[in-house]
Design brief:
single chain, alpha/beta, 8-stranded parallel sheet, binds glutamine, binds zinc ion
């Protein structure tokens, strides 16, 4: 008998992003709610059919969502804040997800789902909220699944992770919430659910005393509940390590382990007294990456499990929900066949599971041959890159002089006014810019035509910045569709899918580049654009690059070597670009690292190692320049007290950060930051044009924490999503704010009329 196979979740946006289309049409009032719900039902049906065709035995249900499953959970347990409650159900749902201007309701905040690029809606549980069960979505989807003849296993986010992820982590509400889960499970049983998958991914984290206690309480509660379906406790995104004890103490009926990231959990469990009758779901196929499964190690794990446990107590599954991978490799027609032969999307991963479950000898043999071929492929290795990477010594990581000394040379070279003004890099990506790019891609506009268009955009952008009176200019990034994809396209070692979409939030999807091999830079990437921009003005134009850690974090990365090594190769390629910009006469170069914080491992104990190599890679990319060349960096988040030392260690000459949304609260965290800093003095994420007075206020706060000589004046992120009208209005006020404060600072006290 082959082992049973199951999935924890399936992508829901549609292989052709049908849900996106339908949602957006509903939101703009073109489509009706009936149409939206029909498309949703159709998608669920197609997804179950695909699973059945692939041979998956147990299918998830309630893994579908119109926006987000954490938000769905909030609705299911009645955690809807009062201010949304007067609206009809669907309107309230989308108002929480994305705000409703017509009702003056803003959206609930959004956060990254563990260390993925998926974002969930952060529930808000008001003190007065009494939870109440709303089973409509679950019942509907369960009924549909049964009707379609699948063997459904409803998925529900567990109560502890749900509370933990909610605003303020109100774990003290657990007893009330457990009561709702009790009812929920009873009802699901009555509706015919044999098993329910209870997701508790927070079990892979380092648990505080309180969180650990909450998990213990919750597990005991479910263990004691009689009238309920069987429960599979699903953990993923890492190893349970010490938390395995919690689970062993109060086992439910089944346990899913992520054996890709937490391989060692299996032996700890099986050797250390696995509870009798506990069904184990072995997450052997990587749900977080797009590479084919290494059957040899997967099979070894399965065999090992089989040597300790009867087959009836084992199931095979992906490591986590397949939400984080694209649908189907078959939809890719442009990929290089050799590279494509190494890849597996959701459709292929299901087939891998089934082959493993059957112990399919032919599939196993083919997989072994393929992985040998991949290891030997010349596409993967570049001797020069490898030799260079091994030759890196610590002096490659340091600028010549320390900041305190090199900054004088830079001040002399640029002779900027106090409180110099600048921007973060991009200027509006207008309809015209997007159209020209689309025309060029489709061959309707030739290379010369496109280059000419971009030059004209750059020239226009420089003129506008000069007219506004900005001190340090940028070229505007009109040639870039995306800050990672653009660089990937010019680097060896990357490839791109045409349909490899993954949901980021709501209807929004991303198509991450695929980093498959050694990374090198055949020729300069941005030098022509930056030099052209610099040739148009006497003011300094800063070069603009995406940093190595961000390129790594926002791509699907090869799994055959440590990420640190891959990152080092990207850093070396960028180092050449930085030096080439300098040679071309670009005196300031900004290397953006918006992803450095989100790359942090889930467990704090793993942070140090990550931050060490991440900082080293940034330094490797940037330290090749002379002392008088100024390195800038930008990060778009305001929560960084926990990495402030690492940010300091990056040693960029000027740090530009997002601050305005947190009312400059993060400035406090920056006290003592030794290099120049540009705390964003207005929020670019809103179309509102802030007044000069507001910006003066924000600047004053910045002046309270850092010496005036070290402060820059700038917006808090790139301007590509804004219109020129908004941008020019805001920057005019920004320049004026800097002027006012300069006047104040340079002529203190006695300015009698
Ligand atoms: N330089 C980029 C821009 O201005 C930075 C984008 C980002 O921080 N995400 O758009
Ligand atoms: Zn930013």
């Amino acid at each position: 008998m082959p082992l049973l196979t199951s999935l924890l979740g399936y992508p829901r946006i549609g292989a052709h992003r049908q849900l996106k289309t339908s949602l957006e049409s509903y939101w703009t009032g073109k489509g009706s709610s009936e149409e939206l719900l029909a498309v949703s039902a159709q998608l669920r049906s197609e997804h179950w059919k695909a699973q059945r065709r692939a041979g998956i035995d147990i299918s998830p249900c309630n893994d579908f969502s119109l926006y987000d499953t954490v938000l769905d959970t909030a609705v299911t347990v009645g955690a809807v804040p009062q201010r949304y409650r007067h609206l009809p159900a669907l309107d309230a749902y989308f108002a929480m997800a994305r705000g409703a201007t017509e009702h003056e309701l803003s959206a609930l905040p959004m956060k990254k789902w563990f260390d993925t690029n998926y974002h969930y809606i952060v529930p808000e549980i008001e003190e007065g909220t009494s939870f109440a069960l709303n089973l409509s979505k679950l019942s509907l989807e369960l009924a549909q699944a049964k009707e379609e003849g699948v063997r459904p296993r409803p998925v529900i986010l567990g109560p502890v992770t749900f509370l933990y992820l909610s605003q303020g982590s109100p774990l003290h509400r657990l007893p009330d919430l457990l009561e709702i889960y009790r009812q929920l499970l009873e009802k699901l049983k009555a509706e015919g659910a044999e098993w329910v998958q209870l997701d508790e991914p927070s079990l892979v984290l380092e648990l505080s005393q309180e969180l650990r206690q909450a998990h213990a309480t919750s597990l005991e509660f479910f263990q004691a509940q009689k009238n309920r379906p069987k429960l599979l406790l699903a953990t993923y995104f890492g190893s349970l390590r010490e938390n395995l004890d919690l689970v062993k103490k109060s086992p439910l009926d089944g346990l899913h382990l992520d054996l890709v990231r937490g391989t060692q959990d299996l032996a700890s469990l099986l050797e250390g007294g696995c509870p009798e009758n506990l069904l184990l779901s072995l997450g052997v196929v990587d749900g977080r990456n797009i590479w084919k499964c290494d059957f040899k190690s997967a099979k070894a794990l399965v065999d090992y499990a089989l040597s300790h446990r009867p087959a009836e107590l084992l199931q095979l599954a992906p490591s986590c929900s397949l939400l984080h991978v694209p649908y189907d490799l078959q939809l890719e027609t442009e990929l290089d066949p050799e590279i494509a032969s190494w890849m597996a999307f959701a459709e292929q991963k299901m087939r891998e599971l089934v082959a493993l479950a059957k112990g399919d000898e032919a599939a196993l043999k083919a997989s072994l041959e393929l992985s040998e071929a991949r290891k030997a492929s010349t596409r993967l290795f570049n001797t020069q890159v490898r030799e260079r990477a091994t030759a890196v010594t610590s002096d490659w990581l340091s600028r010549g002089l320390p900041f305190s000394e090199r900054s004088h040379k830079q001040r002399e070279k640029f002779s900027l006014p106090l409180l110099p003004t600048t921007t973060i890099g991009s200027f509006p990506q207008t309809k015209e810019v997007r159209k020209a790019r689309a025309d060029w891609k489709a061959g309707r506009l030739d290379q010369a035509g496109y280059d000419g268009f971009l030059r004209a955009e750059i020239a226009g952008c420089i003129k506008r910045q000069e007219a506004l009176g900005l001190d340090v200019l940028v070229h505007g990034e009109f040639e870039r569709n995306d800050m990672v994809e653009y660089f990937g396209q010019y680097l060896e070692g990357f490839t791109f899918t045409s349909n490899g979409w993954v949901q980021s939030y709501g209807s929004r999807c991303v198509k991450p580049p695929v980093l498959f091999g050694d990374v090198s830079r055949p020729k300069p990437i941005t030098v022509d654009w930056s030099s052209y921009a610099q040739s148009l003005t006497v003011r300094p134009v800063k070069g603009m690059l995406t940093g190595p850690v961000t390129i790594l974090c926002w791509s699907f990365v090869r799994d055959d070597q440590p990420r640190s090594e891959t990152c080092r190769q990207i850093a070396l390629a960028l180092r050449d670009e930085v030096v080439d910009l300098e040679i071309a006469g670009i005196g300031m170069i900004q290397v953006d690292e918006p992803a450095i914080r989100e790359g942090l491992p889930l467990r704090k104990s793993d942070w140090k190692e990550y931050l060490e190599w991440a900082v080293d890679c940034f330094r490797l990319a940037t330290a090749g320049v002379k002392d008088e060349t100024q390195i800038h960096t930008h990060m778009c988040y305001s929560e960084f007290s926990d990495i402030v030392e690492a940010v300091e260690a990056m040693d960029s000459d000027a740090l530009f950060i997002e601050t305005s949304r947190s009312q400059m609260a993060l400035l406090a965290q920056l006290e003592g930051y030794p290099n120049d800093v540009g705390p964003g003095i207005y929020d670019i994420h809103s179309p509102r044009v802030p007044s000069t007075e507001e910006m003066v206020e924000n600047l004053r706060r910045a002046l309270d924490i850092a010496a005036k000589e070290r402060i820059w004046v700038n917006p808090d992120c790139g301007l590509k999503t804004r219109s020129w009208l908004e941008v020019e209005g805001a920057l005019r006020n920004l320049v004026e704010a800097a002027r006012q404060l300069r006047a104040e600072i340079s002529s203190p006290v006695s300015s009698f009329p």
